[in-house]
């Protein structure tokens, strides 16, 4: 329009009588210098924007780029009317008008009105319900006028879930999967927009994407690509990242856009977006995995090592997408896109050798004489020095343990010997050993004839009092056969008990009896006082006791003649006579028994 025109009419009335048209959103950019813009409604005016041009040489392109009041202003139109009227007042600032009256810029000669954004919605009215919905996979829905009483203003056709296309023609709604092309028709596709990698099924150029919804617009090679959602309304999203394997797009909504996508951008949408900073789930088609695999020519999961994954958004089934199988990574939407993961490159997968296999891995032990080197991730030979050090350490530990054990045994034995020595010393004193030593030393003749034996000597003579050495048993004890170190054969009498009050008398008797020397009396060599009960050492009589001879069974071949009995009686009387009258110390024996005397 020219500067002389003061009113401007904008109408959205449809030409046909069977269509209802309403504005969803209208935004206008008005360019011109020194303007005031008013909205005219019911003969009332209201200012809505104004422009100034402090720079006399400003161009229309520069003014429209920012549209911030310098040569251009922005108008948002109400969406509840089908006609609009604007009034323009030119030259509201006389100073500026006079100063720039000689300028040649077009902004001083005309007013330009351009649409920044324009969106209409329409429906069909005044006809039988849904007669225009021709496709067999189409449905319809009514629109209602807003007001005190709502009434349907018309209806609109749409394709059923899982179908896209034109619902107003026969066979116009087709399966979503028919729109998916698993093979790009171009081989030289650009896959980079700024810092964003755009992998198939998405693309920046014709023939480089799998379906029209996956077309990205790269407006500037140094910026992020733009994704347009074209379902119920066009929404431009600035893409900041794409994860093909996880089926997500990270995007933001530019500040100048007023529209905010809901959780589902449309009934047949392939995208599910949330919030101003969006993590968008997307699917290849709104089909189940079984339905998608039925049509192999349009099946998206073309990589050999890929699998189909069914996706739901807000508990509503959204469709299917593709994912690399376990042990693989990459792009499942292209041939050989899923590549094997080398798990052996990941730390701590195996304690020893890691062997990578297709889609998995195995752990193998190192061979003998080798050890695993975690730095180089391989088996290396065990160093000889390490082996030698190990052997030395092992031998040292072994010898140390043996030495410690040997020391413990020696100390234990020494302790036991000390205990036995102290115990023998105690018994020696208890059994009046000092008294016997005094008696022996006071009698020169007894000194050569009486001996005090050590317990060690008698244990050695009897093989530690071996039961096999027992040659006699009695009510008061047992008699053992022993061989002394000087090869003398002796009989050692071990009594069971002796009264402590009789110890002194016993010592005196030992001192006296050891001095008796007679061929028919058993010789007493001495005693041992290092045990609880003293031990007596006699000369061993090889033919047994007199009692055994006198009471022998004639059938055993041992019989005595009368002359033998008389000789025994005569020699016994001689021995008693010696004790009573011939010994140095006279002994009167009142308990003579045949078992304790010998005959020769």
TrEMBL record:
Any stretches that span the bilayer, and where are they? 387-411
Its membrane topology = Single-pass type I membrane protein
Q: Domain (Protein kinase): give its ranges.
A: 465-600
Give its localization: Membrane
**Alphabetized SUPFAM superfamilies for the sequence:** Growth factor receptor domain, Protein kinase-like (PK-like)
What are the binding positions for ATP in this chain?
494
GO MF, one example: ATP binding
Q: Which Pfam families match?
A: EGF_CA, GUB_WAK_bind, PK_Tyr_Ser-Thr
Q: Which UniProt keywords apply?
A: ATP-binding, Disulfide bond, EGF-like domain, Glycoprotein, Kinase, Membrane, Nucleotide-binding, Serine/threonine-protein kinase, Signal, Transferase, Transmembrane, Transmembrane helix
Question: Which is a GO BP term held by this UniProt record?
Answer: cell surface receptor signaling pathway
Q: Which GO terms describe its cellular component?
A: plasma membrane
Identify the InterPro entries for this entry.
Answer: EGF, EGF-like_Ca-bd_dom, EGF_Ca-bd_CS, Growth_fac_rcpt_cys_sf, Kinase-like_dom_sf, NOTCH1_EGF-like, Prot_kinase_dom, Protein_kinase_ATP_BS
The name this protein goes by in its record: Protein kinase domain-containing protein
- Species per Swiss-Prot/TrEMBL record: Triticum urartu
Its organism's taxonomic lineage begins at: Eukaryota, Viridiplantae, Streptophyta, Embryophyta, Tracheophyta
